[in-house]
Design a protein that fits this description.
Layout: H1 6-15, H2 22-34, E1 47-49, E2 67-73, H3 75-78, E3 82-87, E4 94-96, E5 117-124, H4 126-131, E6 136-137, H5 139-149, E7 156-161, H6 171-175, E8 187-188, H7 190-199, E9 202-207, H8 221-228, E10 232-235, E11 248-254, E12 262-270
Parallel strand pairs: 5-7, 6-8, 7-9, 9-10
Antiparallel strand pairs: 1-12, 2-3, 4-10, 4-12, 5-11, 11-12
Helix pairs in contact: 1-2, 7-8
């Protein structure tokens, strides 16, 4: 059976006898009709999971379990396994939707799918954060990245790699909460946030800490500026040390829940 266009191709081939013998042209057309479509080649070598495993032990901003699981059905008793979840939207590796810090921002389910697959630019400030737990990413950090790799890609996610992900199993270290209740961990400074908004075409920002703002922040200025502009943010990102500073593609898989201000995300970097 010939696919649409096969007969036309066959007739055209037979009419060009100075290039092909009739039998050869017919044979070619038959083979073309029977072969499956060629798959589009992959443009990446591998995938890196940038997601922490979520559990009741994962450190949270509020100091309470970010998720609780209650087993309601058991395989031996009921024929299948099923849990009920009680979950905080903003716990574990998760996305902040614009509505999280704005009056009229969109909710998580309204974020366009095409804005969740983006170039990834990783700004490495681990050495600086090692010396100063309250470090804030600066314009100079981004300028240094651009001197080496070129202008930040259009619609990119700019991620802060502070090295904080390695502390996730130690809640006291990860949160940095002191005796007076103040948190201490790195984040994006307000100045660089404003610069990214006004001078670069960036879709999202990401951190490997509890918050887009650094720990001591009281006004959450980065949250307020960034999210109110209609962009999204990612917090508690894992394994940023395992992806290149430039060239990877980030895939953000976030729960599509109506009216959600954010939610748990599965982040994958294609490298």
């Amino acid at each position: 059976m010939c696919v649409p266009g096969c007969q036309e191709a066959l007739r055209a081939g037979l009419s060009r006898r100075r290039f092909f013998k009739g039998a050869a042209a017919a044979s070619f057309a038959a083979v073309a009709a029977s072969e499956p479509a060629i798959a589009v080649p992959r443009r990446f070598r591998g995938a890196v999971d940038l997601t922490h495993t979520m559990s009741p032990d994962f450190p949270t901003f509020f100091g309470v379990p970010g998720i609780e699981l209650e087993k309601k059905f058991d395989l031996k008793k009921d024929g299948f396994n099923l849990h009920w979840w009680r979950i905080i939207e903003h716990a574990g590796t998760h996305l902040d939707a614009p509505i999280h810090f704005s009056e009229n921002g969109i909710t998580a389910e309204k974020i366009a799918a095409e804005t969740l697959v983006v170039p990834l630019a990783v700004i490495d400030v681990a050495a600086k954060a090692g010396r100063n737990a309250d470090y804030e990413v600066t314009r100079e950090d981004c300028a240094a990245w651009e001197r080496r790799y070129g202008r930040l890609p259009a619609n990119a996610c700019v991620a802060m790699h502070s090295g904080w992900a390695r502390h996730v199993s130690d809640a006291a270290k990860f949160t940095g909460k002191d005796a007076s209740g103040v948190f201490h961990f790195p984040g994006f400074g307000a100045e660089v946030t404003e610069w990214l908004l006004k001078r670069r075409n960036v879709t999202g920002i990401a951190v490997d800490t509890l918050s887009l703002d650094h720990g001591p922040s009281k006004d959450f200025k980065t949250h307020r500026m960034w999210l109110s502009s209609g962009r999204w943010g990612l917090e508690n990102v894992a394994n940023l040390d395992q992806v290149p500073a430039a060239g990877a593609t980030l895939v953000v898989g976030v729960a599509k829940v109506k009216d959600a201000t954010g939610g748990p995300a599965r982040l994958i970097a294609l490298v």
